[in-house]
Amino acid sequence: MLRPRNHTPFKKPLKELTEADLDRELNRQSAHLDLALEAKEAASEVQGRVDELPGVHTEILEEQGIKITRIEVQNEEGARLIGKVPGHYITLEVPGLRHKDSKLQDRVATKFAQEFERFLKHLNISPDAKVLLIGLGNWNVTPDALGPLVVENIMVTRHYFELMPDQVHPGYRQVSALAPGVLGTTGIETSDIVYALVEKVQPDLVIAIDSLASKALERVNTTIQIANTGIHPGSGIGNKRKGLTKQELGVDVIAIGVPTVVYASTIVTNTMEMLIRHFKKRTNHTQQIFGLMDQLSETERLELIKEVLNPIGHDLLVTPKEIDEFIEDIANIIASGLNAALHEAVDTSNVAAYTH
């Protein structure tokens, strides 16, 4: 059923919806949404709200081309509404990263380090806490190689503490790192590998880095998310398996993710939205040009396009052609930021010196 723009995606008024109706729609909207920011936006659209959702607190800051959104899912009601477990989520959006501006990359690395350091303090992670970094993903597939590339650039120190502790200068902590590969190449669930490693290494904190999927084309290759709720490898492409969470591993888990892929249905939807906006600047007869598609909301267009593409297997996962250069740059930004945030001896106010 095609519905006019600005209507809710329900056949009856929002105030008449049962909790079951709302839950079904919220679950549908939050499917495949790795970014908490996008899950909140989808939930707000479902509920027709522009203010805060119950149980969800949002804080937005903008500084020199970097937009920071801090979302706290405070309780089970908030978790139900946006489909994300209670916890803290920080999103850095930097559209300028597409232009390979080295000075902007330095600022992003510095801001990421400061936000991550703030995150550690909020979770009461002590300066001497032992850290294990896990680089999730497949190093043979460029859009999925973020985790392994970050691990390559991490300042690992655990072996120094083990072999020559008297030679370690103050201001450094024990950091170890591993890229465990993917199930298809190892035959072992990633969570099983990490669980065994945690049992042996006994870290106080696990940091998992992974590539994500986005529903917004403009967020691909421009966004970094930090969350203290763990991660489910493969969830962004609909392949959810056993997660890396505090409940599973017994230690705090911080997830860092960057959307590097987008669904074909999202590209079609975004392109159609841009076309409609383009024509509206030039004519008042867009309805004659686009028909009923002009009356649908963006979410309704997306659902309609998915209905067309999914049965024939054409809702592909797509990555921009610049992914080879971008993945190296963003991995360097994250690794540099982590090195500064994890070691007090590295100045988080100026990460540029450690970025190149």
From TrEMBL:
<dbReference type="GO" id="GO:0006508">
    <property type="term" value="P:proteolysis"/>
</dbReference>
<dbReference type="GO" id="GO:0004222">
    <property type="term" value="F:metalloendopeptidase activity"/>
</dbReference>
<protein>
    <recommendedName>
        <fullName>Germination protease</fullName>
        <ecNumber>3.4.24.78</ecNumber>
    </recommendedName>
</protein>
<dbReference type="InterPro" id="IPR023430">
    <property type="entry name" value="Pept_HybD-like_dom_sf"/>
</dbReference>
<dbReference type="Pfam" id="PF03418">
    <property type="entry name" value="Peptidase_A25"/>
</dbReference>
<dbReference type="InterPro" id="IPR005080">
    <property type="entry name" value="Peptidase_A25"/>
</dbReference>
<keyword id="KW-0645">Protease</keyword>
<comment type="subunit">
    <text>Homotetramer.</text>
</comment>
<keyword id="KW-0865">Zymogen</keyword>
<comment type="function">
    <text>Initiates the rapid degradation of small, acid-soluble proteins during spore germination.</text>
</comment>
<keyword id="KW-0378">Hydrolase</keyword>
<feature type="propeptide">
    <location>
        <begin position="1"/>
        <end position="34"/>
    </location>
</feature>
<comment type="similarity">
    <text>Belongs to the peptidase A25 family.</text>
</comment>
<dbReference type="GO" id="GO:0009847">
    <property type="term" value="P:spore germination"/>
</dbReference>
